[in-house]
Design a protein that fits this description.
293 residues; Rossmann fold; 3-stranded mixed sheet; globular; binds NADP nicotinamide-adenine-dinucleotide phosphate
Length: 293
């Protein structure tokens, strides 16, 4: 790889990808508002100018609940990767695209993990738009890797962990209900960026599940994070029915990185180890950031 483009470069994952790929001779990061990559003309014009040999697509419309009522999510989640795939195929490039556990319904019996050959069946507009993005890529090129990740957190931008920390610091005497009947694999965006690099370097193609090992609930994740930070907290486990959201979430979102393991390039460790490493590196700055809000 001599020349790469990272899209969504100001986002949670995009920022970490810029760090992980920073030794590549030519590296460009692009995001809104500079270029709207869901606009085919703007997208192809940018690619013709930069001529990357690899594109790492971290751009997406990620506000899951907003997707239910905002059809523009289809532009970022389906049209944008479709334009990238069109250019990739015509220019002998390689496209790494990031997708989601929400392409699955979550109906697989607990605690069987989801492998790449399981049939997607999204139950949310977000999941449907992301699956449409996957399909649009596969229809146009074979020169792609799609990484489905889950429950992403990182140092940059907003995420569930920062929300739970902010709520706790702002309301130290209050108890918060946290959902304890959805299961997933919490994943640090920095480790995902390393997995992306391992796959891009080999130009390994196809669909890859890409999340930390093991699984937990949102309640377990929030509790583990605040405990690692040594921040007193009062979380109460609750059911999904007790915590209604505009979007139905999958009950079983446990991904198994079967494809990467078969190729010997799985970089993920247990989610608790990853979380502790995240706290060691970023805990203080995350607390400062959240306190300043
Ligand atoms: N976050 C999670 O828990 C999670 C879980 C599973 C999978 N994923 C997937 O992981 C990937 C990275 O997620 P993330 O958390 O890093 O997302 P993020 O922080 O929301 O970053 C996405 C970036 O893409 C940009 N973008 C959106 N539409 C664009 C467009 N038309 N042209 C150019 N840039 C555009 C966004 O800009 P604006 O902010 O200005 O809109 C944002 O900077 C996504 O594909 C997401 O679907 C995330």
């Amino acid at each position: 790889m001599q020349n790469i483009l990272i899209t969504g470069a100001k986002g949670q994952l995009g920022t970490d990808c810029l760090e992980i790929f920073n030794d590549i001779p030519e590296i460009s990061g692009i995001d809104l508002p500079e270029v709207d990559l869901s606009d085919r003309f703007q997208c192809l014009e940018l690619l013709d100018r930069l001529k990357p040999d690899a594109i790492i697509n971290c751009a997406a419309y990620t506000a899951v609940d907003a997707c239910e009522t905002d059809p523009t999510c289809w532009k970022a989640n389906r049209d944008l990767p479709s334009h990238l795939a069109e250019w990739t195929e015509k220019n002998d490039a390689f496209l790494v695209h990031v997708s989601t556990d929400y392409v699955f319904s979550g109906d697989k019996p607990l605690f069987q993990s989801l492998v790449e050959t399981d049939e997607p069946n999204p139950i949310s507009e977000y999941g449907k738009s992301k699956l449409a993005g996957e399909l649009a890529i596969a229809e146009q090129t074979d020169r792609y890797a799609i990484l489905r990740t889950a429950w992403l957190y990182g140092a940059h931008g907003n995420n569930f962990l920062k929300t739970m920390l902010r709520l706790t610091l702002q309301n130290p005497d209050r108890a918060f209900n946290v959902v304890n009947d959805q299961y997933g694999s919490p994943t640090w965006s920095m480790t995902l960026a390393r997995q992306i690099r391992a796959i891009a370097e080999q130009r390994a193609t196809g669909i890859f599940h890409a999340s930390s090992e093991g699984y937990g609930t949102w309640y377990e994740l929030a509790s583990a994070f605040l405990e690692a930070l040594n921040v007193p907290h009062h979380f109460v486990p609750c059911s999904s029915d007790e915590f209604p959201t505009p979007t139905k979430r999958p009950v079983n979102s446990i991904l198994e990185n079967a494809h990467a393991k078969a190729l010997g390039i799985n970089v993920f460790r247990g989610w608790q180890d990853e979380l502790n490493q995240f706290v060691d590196r970023h805990g203080d700055s995350v607390i400062e950031e959240v306190k300043a809000l």
